[in-house]
Amino acid sequence: MKPGMTTMRWLLALAMLYGGAAAADDACKSPDEHCPSIASLLQQREGYGAKATGGLGGRFIEVTSDEDSGPGTLRAALAQAKKGPAWIRFASDMTIVLDSQLRVPSNVTIDGRGKRVTLIDDGLGVYGSKNVILTHLTIDGRLNRLTQAVNVANGSRDVWVDHLDLSRMSDRLLNVKNGSTDVTISWTKFHNSNKVMLLNNITSKNLFQNYDRDSIARVTLHHNYFFNTVQRNPRGQFGTFHLFNNLLENWDFYGMSFSLEAKAFVEGNIFNNETQRKCVEPEFFPTVEGINVNYCRYIPIAPERSALGNGESDRGAYEKRKALHGYTRDYKAFLRLKDNLYLGDAKPVLEDYRPESAPTPPYCYGYERPTPELAEKIRRFAGNTAGDTPLPASRIGSGCPG
Questions:
Q1: Pathway listed for it (predicted)?
Q2: pTM of the predicted model, to two decimals?
């Protein structure tokens, strides 16, 4: 131990090094800021969801069973968490085959660090919940049913989704919609799926009917890895979005999409795609509409579609319905682009459009210059990895939290 370093600081350093699962936590009777693994996770927060504390100040609940339901299961732990803040951890590595979606109440952390925890066939629903942290989990839908890996909806807020590995969902891998806001999605790997992410969605034939409800959405995406997907990485409408240092690689149809007065600041992202590559899609993806689809034929032109043209995803419906509903809002998004990097055959598509309407984020954040080295870092650390990710140099000594 260095001279002058307190025992707690030394324990905190160990916890950070070994993914928050250090034996130092054994002495913690509750999940508070003095627990090394709790502190090491919370210092990683940034973006619009940075206020999420999950089960801080509540109690630990340990999952001991890999069954869908019953004593010791994750479903039972979430039911207990309705009684008060809970920090849920796992006694061992486990694979849980779910019969139905798990509902996550307010003031909950589901913390899979230090274990290999996989949810199969269904995922997590965050409905009207506040103050939720989901970290270090794998969710694989196996294309078995129409559901989502993570669905943040119905006025949820202060949600942090971190270090998840999400794949093969017949609906979407992740949604933030229906009046939900203040969400951060970080260091998550999205792969082998079709329609990846919706940030708001149209729930009426009148495109702007729910604009007042949904335009409050504020979402940060950083250091996520979109790999071998088809489209919607993400698709954003109405809200305020900050996307920095994400890696999009080998999409088959298109990369990002923004429309309907979304306000998006897109900076330091890396787009990498090749015209000559093998398609890894299944024979078809089942869809919500009951149509079986495959997008392999688009691979030769996919690198030219790092994004759809501004507003193009909803332009047809907008023009068809404008006279009926008297639209005065724009079908395009308000975009500000900065320092994005295009590798391989990938080409830029998005351009600034009314950039003054895409606000500068009101928070400190660990921005890194987009380089091939950063791309390799994201490949290495995004997903359900062993532990916490080292803070970038731009966060250290910057005056930002952590």
A1: Glycan metabolism; pectin degradation; 2-dehydro-3-deoxy-D-gluconate from pectin: step 2/5
A2: 0.92
